[in-house]
Design a protein that fits this description.
The protein is α/β, with parallel strands linked by helices. The chain contains 14 helices and 20 strands.
């Protein structure tokens, strides 16, 4: 037996796979974290990619909006914002003309305690830091449609700002190819109608996601939306599997993003030998709920042999979703039925429908067994998944389904990985 250990719920989780079945265990590639993050941040701010330093173009009269990712991401914005504020102050912009909106997308609102932890007490006391209240129509402004025809509703705060700077992290992502850059605007601070259409667009890739595809229809649409609201500058990082920063990218939206993508691909692009029959996909670091941990499915979907089995491992202490509570009524439907019901108006929650379509496309390629202490057995059934009482049972069941010679691959940090077939 081969003993495999994965990070799970803040501690190691080990399980056995027969030696003859274990094909490979894949995790992020080795990388070197920055020795001095503060110095790297200052260097990036001093020499932006594709644009002059802030002090040369920001005016004292400007209203500045920082758009930061939320507590479902490990981006160290508490380290990034203070030197950014110092530069803005040197440009003559006082703290009272600077705000920071937390780009929740359609996640639950963050508590004050969570906000303080995210941005740091010093930042919380200095500038206004607030949630994107996507559930409040009065907070949204309708800007018509993007070039791709997506209805564009954004938080009013971004339309009132003169300078918009997006903060986030770049990793492979199943919807726009990679996270970071314009994703902080859409879905970050857009209305649910906008997000629903973007997510639906991501399901038009012929059964597979846009994971790791840098140029795709979703990314182009997001970039257009960011252009429309005036976000010209991003401040993004690339991190290793332990959340340590390996690179800092500040500057013009497209140019800085391009350099960040290359760095992320070097860490998270992993080569596999042959399509496995079973993929054991661990959700770390996206563990909060299935709304986050579902990202573990798409690298597994990319790799697994058609008709194979995916074993999804996730703590998910907040269950499937504390916000989109209605989605369990239809997540087990076929993808075509969910799409049709949404387009015909029989289902109203477009964001939930779009993700349910993506989840169905995974099941239509491979069966899914889920080991999750946080998701009740009945809810797993409504996801169209098989309940596993423990990880060892899940491995045995997957091998029973796929046969004694089944090849098993393990993804230790599945949400961030980009599987690439070996040449």
């Amino acid at each position: 037996m081969a003993r495999v250990t994965i990070p799970f719920g803040g501690k190691p989780l080990s399980f056995d796979v027969p030696d003859r079945n274990l094909a490979e265990v894949l995790g992020p590639n080795p990388s070197v974290p920055l020795d001095d993050l503060a110095a790297a941040i200052e260097a990036a701010l001093a020499r932006p990619i594709g644009q002059p330093p802030l002090e040369e173009w920001v005016r004292p009269s400007d209203r500045v909006l920082l758009v930061s990712d939320d507590n479902t991401r490990l981006t160290p914005v508490d380290r990034m914002i203070p030197p950014l504020l110092a530069r803005l102050n040197r440009a003559g912009v006082p703290d009272e003309r600077i705000g920071c909106i937390l780009a929740l997308g359609t996640h639950r609102y963050m508590t004050e305690e969570e906000i303080r932890a995210k941005v740091g007490d010093a930042v919380f006391r200095r500038i206004r830091v607030f949630n994107h209240e996507w559930r409040t129509p009065e907070r949204l402004v309708d800007l018509g449609r993007s070039r791709a025809g997506t209805p564009l509703q954004v938080n009013r705060a971004v339309t009132e700002a003169d300078v918009v700077i997006g903060l986030g992290a770049i990793v492979p992502h199943h919807i726009p190819g990679y996270s970071g850059s314009s994703k902080i605007i859409q879905p970050g601070i857009c209305g649910p109608k906008t997000t629903a259409e973007t997510h639906m667009l991501s399901c038009e890739g012929g059964g597979d996601s846009f994971l790791g595809i840098e140029d795709n229809p979703v990314r182009r649409d997001m970039d257009d939306m960011a252009d429309r609201v005036g976000m010209k500058t991003i401040f993004n990082v690339v991190m290793d599997s332990e959340g340590r920063v390996t690179g800092v990218f500040f500057g013009a939206m497209r140019e800085a993003f391009r350099e960040g993508v290359a760095a992320a691909r070097r860490i998270y692009g992993v080569r596999y030998r042959v399509p496995p029959d079973v993929v054991i996909a661990n959700s770390f670091p996206c563990d909060l709920d299935f709304w986050q941990s579902h990202k573990a499915q798409y690298p597994a979907q990319r790799m697994v042999r058609p008709g194979g089995t995916i074993v999804l491992c996730t703590p998910a202490p907040e269950g499937v979703s504390p916000v989109h509570t209605d989605l369990l009524n239809f997540t087990f439907w076929p993808s075509a039925d969910i799409k049709a019901a949404y387009r015909e108006g029989r289902l109203k929650n477009g964001v939930a429908c779009a993700l349910a379509v993506a989840w169905a496309l995974v099941r239509e390629k491979a069966s899914v067994i889920t080991f999750s202490p946080g998701i009740p057995e009945e809810h797993k059934k409504r996801l169209g998944h098989t309940h596993a009482p423990d990880i060892d049972w899940a491995v045995r069941e997957a091998l029973r389904r796929q046969g004694p010679e089944a090849r098993v691959a393990v993804l230790t940090h599945a949400p961030d990985l980009l599987p690439i077939p070996a040449a």
